[in-house]
Amino acid sequence: MTLAIDHNDPTLRGHAEAYSREMAAKRRQTLLGAVVFIACVLLAAYGAEVDPAKFAENAWRFPKYILEIMPTLRPATFFSDLKEWYWNLNGWLKLLWQTLLIAYVGTLLGAVGGFLLCFTASANLGSGWVRWGTRRFLEFCRTVPEIVFALIFVIAFGLGPLPGVLAIAIHTMGAMGKLFSEVVENIDMKPVDGMTATGATWWQTIRFAVVPQVLSNFASYALLRFEINVRGASIMGFVGAGGIGQDLIEAIRKFYFTDVSAILFLIILTVMLIDYGTERLRHALLSLEHRQ
Amino acid sequence: MSLALSTTERSELIARHQGAIDGSLKTKLITIGVIAGMVALFVYALTTFELDFWRIINGFSSLGKFVVLMLPPDPGSLTRAIIFVKALFETIAIAFLGTILAAILAFPLGFLAAKNVVANRIVHFLARRSLDTVRGVDALIWALIWVNVVGLGPFAGMLAIMTSDLGAFGKLYSEAIESADKKAVEGVTSSGGNKLHEIRFGLIPQVLPVIASQVLYFIESNTRSSTIIGIVGAGGIGLHLAETIRTLEWQQASFVILLVLVAVSVIDLISNRLRFAIIGKRAV
Asked: How many CB atoms lie within 10 A of CB B122?
C-alpha cells in the first residue's frame, strides 16, 4: 500500500482548488493590509521629518556621546577616579531621596483618591450620572500627561516638590481609579447581597462586603504604580517640579558629561532596586491572599 | 413566633463567637504598624517639601483662576489652530513610527534574550540586563540625548520613543518566545527543518498575534509620551503645550490639551478595535 496521493482524483482536485482559492483570498487581504501599513509608515515618516541622510551623517555622534559621558576609570587610581566621577554624591542622593518621597506621597494621595472614587465608577456598585461623571473625571486625570499638570502647578504653586507631588497624585488617581473599579467589578456579589439583606447602608456594604475582597489587589496595584511613579518623579525636575531631574537636565544641557552618566546610573540603579523590592512585596501579598 | 433575637440570645451569640468578632491580635498589630509606618513616612515627606499653609491656599486660588481663564478653549486664530493640528499630526507620526521601528529592531534582541533560543547563559544575562538598563531611562531623557545627537526636531523625538521602547519590546518578545509551545518547533525539526525554519514556522506563527496586540498597546501609550517630548524640543505638540502654559495663554493651552485628549481617545478606540480583530481571529 502506498500513501502517495493521486493528483487526478476529482474530489481531491476540488479540495485543492478550493484551498488555493481560500489561500489566494487570504493572501490578497494580507497584501492589502501591508499596503495600508506601508502608506501609514510613509505618511508618518513625512510627518516626523525622517531624514536617513541626516541620520547617517550624525549617527556616529550617538556612540561618541555615550563614550563622552562615560568617566575615565583607570585601574591604578580607581578609587580617586570613582570619587571624582561621583563628586556630588551627597547632593544627588539627597535629590534622589526627594524623588522617592515625591513618588511615595504622590502614589499614596493618588491611591486614596482612586480608592474613594472607584466604587462609584464601577458598573456594579455605582449608578446613573454619578458613575458617568466619575468615569469621565478619572479619564481626564489619566489622559493628561502628568508633566503637563506639573507645568501648570509650577506656575500656580511656585518651584519645588509640591507641584510634582500634586501632578503625580492626580495622574495616579486617574489610573488607579480605573484599575480599582475593574477589580471591584470582578468581585463576588454574594456578600454585597447579604449586607443589603441585613439593611446595611451603602458605606457599610462597601466596608464589610467589598473592601475585604479587593484590598490585597489594590495594594498590589498601588505598589506597581509606585514603581512607575518613581520613573515619573525622576523627570519632574525637567519643568522645575523637584527631584533629581533638575540636576540631570542641567548636566545634559550644559554638557557636564560625566555628571550625566553618574546621575543616569543612580536613577537606573534606584529604579531597578524599587522594581525588585515591589515585585517581592507583591508576590508576598498575593501568596497571603492564596493562603486565606 | 418572632424572628428577632432577644437580648440574652444576642449576648450569648456574641460570647460564643467573641474570637471571630475580635480577630487575631497579631494581624491587628501588623495592620496598625504598617499604617502607622506609612503615615509617619508621609508626614516626614511633607515636612521636607517646604510646605506652608498660605502657599497652598494661594496655589489653589491661582489654580482656580487659571481654570476660569482656560474656558472656553480657543486657539486664538485660524493660523494658530492649523499650527497646533500640524503639531498633533507630527506627534502621532512620532509615536507610530517610533513604535514600529522599535518593534522591528527589538525582534533579534528578543530572540537573543530568550532562554530557549540562545542557551548560552552569559549572552542571555547580558541581553536581559542591557534591555533593563535601556528600559530604566525615561523617553524624555532619551529625547534630551537624541536632541544632542541629531539636533532639535521630531526626528530626535522619534528616535527617543524608539530607544525607550526597545528595552520594553525586547523583554516582552523574549517572554512571549519563552512561553511559546515547544511542540510546533519539534514538529518542524522532525520534518527536517533547520534552526531558521524552526523560528519561521514553529515560533513566529505563535508569537505574532501576541506581539501585534502589544505593538498596538505601545502605539497607544506612546501617543501619550510623544505629546510631552516636545517640552525638551524633540518635536510634536509638547512644544506648544509648554509654550502656551509658560506664556500664560490659558485659552490656547486648554485648546491644545483638548486636542491631545481627543487624539488620544480616537487612537484608543482604533487600537481597541484592531486588537479585538487580531485576537478574535486568533481565537477562531
From this structure: 8
